[in-house]
Amino acid sequence: MTGQPMSSWIRAGLAAAATSIFLAAVGLIERFRDLNLVGEEVTFAGLVMAVVPFGVGYVLARPRIERGERREVPLPRAALVGAVAGIAAGLGFGAAAVAVDAFGVDRVRAVFLNVTEGLIELVTFGLPPVAGAGVLAVMSGALGALGGAYRRSPERWRRPLGTAVVAVLVLGFLQRIVPIALDQLNLERDWLYSRRTGGLTWPGAALAAVVAVLASVVKARLAERWRDLADRGGSEGAEPFGGLRLRTALFVAGLIGVAALPQVVGSVVSEVLGTVMVFALLGLGLNIVVGYAGLLDLGYVFFFATGAYTLALLTGATLNTFTGQAEPALSAELGFYLAIPIVIALAAATGLLIGAPVLRLRGDYLALVTLGLGEMVTVLVKSPWLTPLVGGPNGMRNVTDAALFGFGFRSPQHFYYLGLAFVLLALVVSHRLAASRIGRAWTAMREDEQIADAMGVNVVRYKLLAFAMGGAIGSLGGALFAVKIGSLTPASFEVIVSIQVLGLVILGGLGSLPGVVVGALVLVGLPGLLREFEEYRFLAYGAALVGIMALRPQGLVPNVRRMRELREEERAQDAWARASIAQEREDEEEYEEPPVEPAGGELRP
Amino acid sequence: MLGAVGGFAHGPHAEEGEPRSAAVTTTRVLAVRLRWYERVPWRRVVLVVLGVAIVAVVVVGTMKTLGLPEAQRYTGQNWINFVARGISQGAILAMIAIGYSLVYGILKMINFAHGEVFMAGAFSSLFFADAYARSGFLDRHPVAATLICVAVAVAASVLTAILLERLAYRPLRSAPRLVPLIAAVGASLFLQNAFRGFFGPQPRGYPRPQVLGGQLSILGVPFQRMQVLVFVVAALSIVALTFLVTRTKTGRSMRAVAEDREIASLMGIDVDRTIVVTFAIGGVFAGIAGVLYAMTFEQVQFTMGFRPGIAAFTAAVLGGIGSISGAALGGLLIGLLLNVGPALFLTGFGIPSPFSLRDAFVFLVLVLVLVFRPGGLLGTGEPEKV
């Protein structure tokens, strides 16, 4: 058995220790010591402290690919590796705590705000520091071993177990949301969430775990049946769900679910869903620019801001001033539905105008230029110069509520439907575009600009088109945002919006429409629900962007066509690998799964 | 600017917007009769209109500002102050710009998080400066105290830069070009918020030794002492860097790696090490700049790296990215533009508080340089297009 030497395990453990120290220093441990997830025993702080050693064991026990073959680490060895790394992680973390204690917590705290007596006590379990560090090391070792063993446990156990843990944790995290939804539905909640600790009760957690295990098992069965069918029929078209009728029923049920959602979940979640809609719209727009056409735009807030402010000006919003309100220097009194086409047309025209000079630039320069354009809007909107037009730092108010036959869309539960309508529209448009001649031209251009040019694709025209269409959809997002909150301040139009939108497009998978929706739900919806973590939101964002680029550049829900291409490539490779391995060891009757390299999706400039 | 337009249009790098080659154009014309609007080179029209508009604004604005009635006009002393401020801020920008330029020269990659490297240095040294100010050490031994602060800042910046390279960029070195850029954006966000988590979100006062508070008269013109210090330090360190790059073995290997990474490695140069050294040098400069910046503005915050970072990147591009003298020149020009430009060009139009628009100037320059002269002033023409 080849493997990596012990020093590399220890190094991984020390990296884990550094991670723990980092997490403690930014405050992710101490500040959440009272955030109970399950009962009083499982707190968020405890979870963070446990996840790191568990994770290092898990990662170290991953199967390695050697000479085209997948080699699993044997179970005892996996546990051993995990234990050693876990002990190293615990010792490192504990040593830091001891050092801080010896140096004087107050002196450290003068610099690192989150290093408190409470933190040291938490990390050393209230024992004398050195003893506590020892306990920490032992527990970390156990967790690391557990992580390694878990990685090596058979899939049919690992899946349900993982699902159960995730389900319980998700319910635990949603302790501010789910009880409200239950109340809304007049359902009893005390069996699931304790009123005293705030988190899940143990019986509730157990029930959730059982349900999750069952769901996971059923899903695995269905997938197996599907695979059987596919193998037997030899076609991909075979359905596990018993054909068209059932699928239609599921679709209708889904539709009803989506339509009834805001009534079920209450106004707090509806509010979050509204924000998700706005960002999904922005994501769909940016997806055209980045995902389809391959132009990295870091200043998408430009269109967001122009959309919002144009709509406000066109529908007769007023300026905030110190004394009250004032008419903008230039405005109209159109209805929302009359103003929207103008907003879109204006944004498309602006897209063309700013696109024209910058589109010849190479990818990363284009990114920086668009960033500059986005920042320029932020600066201008805030500036005293444009205050008579857009209100400057005070912003505007009284934006239309887009009333349709007297039905306003300001309240979160109503806005959801307006947002949904526009998102669906943008989804359809994007979907049709992708399949059209234009979409193919974009794909060709993204894959290789020179070849596309040589094949007769008018590169400049299609780039401009992408910019204009992306801008139009983005401005729609801005307009909806203005309707949603009813007032505008420059603080909503910072560069972070561009990065958020880019993040959700990339997280979901460039060029993938379901990906945009998933990305918006994860990157906008989740932080909206987990308000406690607001401060750490962008820390997680940044880490996620780096992580995705390193580990899964194709995103969570990759573009179907690109995935299919990849899979075909993989099959060809499998066939090749099978042939060569079979030849290598003719005497062996069966061989392991053919090598599965992580599918490396690519982001092309 | 107009000259640049002309030069550009006839340049060797004319591309898709321009007539591609005689053959292609002729076939097109023969095959399809182009309508009039298809025959207009829209891209170039937009460019020319843009260029003319900007030149007009600059010229008219300057004339109007200088022609204002006595009461509203800036005094000569005002202008001297603007220029002095511009030069000193430009010197700081030049030092940050060097970080962008070196990394770009070697990896052909924009280290978007370099502004955060700068922030890391300034912020980390705050705690030493603060302690020294409270104990009185800062005013009793200003040189020693400042040197220690600089050393701390340099250490923090270098550490940040090296970690950045090791954790975020090295794994992506062979990936398509936009992948590391996106990772860099993420890293920048991560670093900002990590410092926010460590040290808190609010701006913190940064002490300055009293010696640096007053004015200094040079040739009868009074300068702020701080500004003089900034300029001298920046000039000295840039000279030192030039020496390092042109005369030492490290510098030679850096140039070799920049020229061709593979061949350099065949010649026995440790490419990974050279890249780390490059990031570290960028970090050294960012650290020094961080202390100078913090002492000038007497304040640090976790977001302080973003705008100077963009301005410095613009400076690097303006001067010609990849070139040290270009970074220095670009820094000075951007510094001057930031501090003189708004007053000179905008006051005449009656725009209230023109300096609130100064950041817009930076972005405008960035756009214009990249559009009209992507190679920068001292660059060798346009950077290659992939």
**Secondary structure tally, helices of chain A:** 22
Euclidean distance between termini CA atoms of chain A: 41 Å
Series of secondary-structure elements of chain B, N-terminal to C-terminal: HHHHHHHHHEEEHHHHEHHH
Task: Give the integer mean of the pLDDT values of chain A.
Answer: 80
Strand tally of chain B, please? 4
Structural class of the secondary elements of chain B?
A: mainly alpha
Strand order of the largest sheet of chain A: 6-5-7
Uncertain parts of chain B = 1-29, 381-386
Protein architecture, described:
The complex is a heterodimer of chains A (605) and B (386). In chain A, the strands form three sheets. A three-stranded antiparallel beta sheet of chain A has the order 6-5-7. Chain A has a two-stranded antiparallel sheet with strand order 1-2. The two termini of chain A are 41 Å apart. The C terminus of chain A is likely disordered. Chain A is mainly α and 605 residues long. Chain A folds into four domains: 153 residues; 80 residues, no CATH class; 221 residues, no CATH class; 42 residues, no CATH class. By secondary structure, chain B is mostly helical. Chain B has a domain of 258 residues: ABC transporter involved in vitamin B12 uptake, BtuC (Orthogonal Bundle), CATH 1.10.3470. Helix content of chain B is 71%, strand content 3%. In chain B, the strands form two sheets. Chain B has a two-stranded antiparallel ribbon. The longest helix of chain B has 32 residues. Chain B is globular and about 65 Å long. Chains A and B meet through helix 1, helix 12, helix 13, helix 19 and helix 21 of A and helix 4, helix 9, helix 14 and helix 16 of B.
Summary tags:
heterodimer, A: 605 residues, mainly alpha, 4 domains, 3-stranded antiparallel sheet, two-stranded antiparallel sheet, B: 386 residues, ABC transporter involved in vitamin B12 uptake, BtuC, two-stranded antiparallel ribbon, 4 strands, 3% strand, globular
